Amino acid sequence: MIRIAVIGAGQWGPNLIRNFHSRDASEVVWVVDQSPARLEQARARFPDLRVAEDVAPVLADAGVDAVVVATPTSTHYALVRAALEHDKHVLVEKPITDDVVQAEELCALAAARGRVLMVGHVFLYNPAVTWVKHLIEAGDLGRIYYVSMVRTNLGPIRLDVDAGWDLASHDISIVNHWLAAAPERASATGGSWINPGVNDAVFATLRYPGGVLVHLQVSWLNPRKVRQITIVGERRMLTFDDMSLDEPLRLYDKQVTDERTLAPWTDTFASFRASVREGDITIPRVAMGEPLKIECGHFLDCIRGGQVPLSGGAEGLAVVRTLAAIQRSIVNAAREEAV
After folding, report:
1. Are 6 and 20 in contact (CB under 8 A)?
2. How does DSSP classify residue 158?
């Protein structure tokens, strides 16, 4: 039985408590939050929990094996560092920190202590994302040309990080996972309308090895909740709509062929159409599950069996490096920055 302390019982914390406390392999023994009302809500649902407004008694408890951090990003570094120094395994919500040097330090500390450090990039545990990963690895799409990613909603509006750090972190982790690479360069622009200095919308372009282009559009100031991804490959194309629970994926057997008109111009409609091949649209059947439940189970497996986390410290660091480059580009009027 792995004994877990959850730090942060706000918006996401209760979901983590539910997943870790309802498993045969783990139990939540502590919940920490600065709000007495939130602690009372946690104890009302799980009366056997111990609660505290400070992390000190939790870190001092030798019976705690792992700490789950679900607090504002600005607090991640201090909390994760303290937990690792007390030899606790750590699952921290994304992004791991808002600073590259701090993220590097946490990765080094986890390695030195021999502890699992995992970042809650929960979309990597979505079965549809896993299905696309296998499809790309098998070469079914051919060479990847570009990826377009849109993630918008009306709120929640945050003050500790902007829309890029909050929302684009999801998409960067996904495309890094799919391409098994990190971007080399980034350019971006952002807009701040609600709170000065905090971007409510970010538009970014990332250049990956092999000439793959990735465009990100994220906003928490949008009338519609959208989570859509388009992958354009040499052989096939794919769309991923995470808001569609029944049919999130569509595979398009479409491509531009080499059967083009020999004339320097397209003189007929038929010769124009000859350069484009239209095939079938396939809707794969993907057995969906709760990504957070899969993520929590993976964290426990990494602690018990020594598995390398799918979203470990190194993966979290790669996302932070990209977000930092995006932030520098916004400050420098969309100048392309090295990641």
Report:
1. yes
2. -
Residue 67 to residue 28: CA distance in whole angstroms? 10
In whole angstroms, what is the distance from residue 113 CA to residue 133 CA? 32
* Cα distance between residue 62 and residue 79, in whole Å: 17
- Report CA-CA distances (Å) from 142 to 29, 219, 255, 322: 49, 31, 10, 26
Q: Strands of 245-301 (E only): list them.
A: 249-256, 276-282
According to the model, what pLDDT value does residue 263 have? 57
Report the Cα–Cα distance between both ends of the chain, in Å, rounded. 41
CA distance 90 to 83: 7
Spatial distance between the Cα atoms of 155 and 146, rounded to a whole number of angstroms:
28
Distance separating alpha carbons of residues 214 and 231, to the nearest angstrom: 9
What's domain 2-123+292-312's superfamily in CATH? NAD(P)-binding Rossmann-like Domain (3.40.50.720)
Order of strands, edge to edge, in the sheet holding 276-282?
276-282, 249-256, 237-241, 221-233, 144-154, 212-219, 201-208, 185-191, 337-338
Summarised one tens digit per residue, pLDDT across range 155-188 is 999 999 999 999 999 999 999 999 999 999 999 9
Q: What CATH number is given for 124-289+321-338 in this structure? A: 3.30.360.10
Could you read off the pLDDT of 58-72 as tens digits, one per residue?
A: 999 999 999 999 999
Domain ranges of the chain: 2-123+292-312, 124-289+321-338
For 106-119, the pLDDT digits (tens) are: 999 999 999 999 99
Place of tokens 């993630």: 151
Bond before 47 cis per omega within 30 degrees? no
Q: Which residues contact 286 (CB under 8 A, 6 or more apart)?
A: 127, 128, 131, 248, 249
Q: Whole-angstrom Cα distance, residue 103 to residue 90?
A: 13
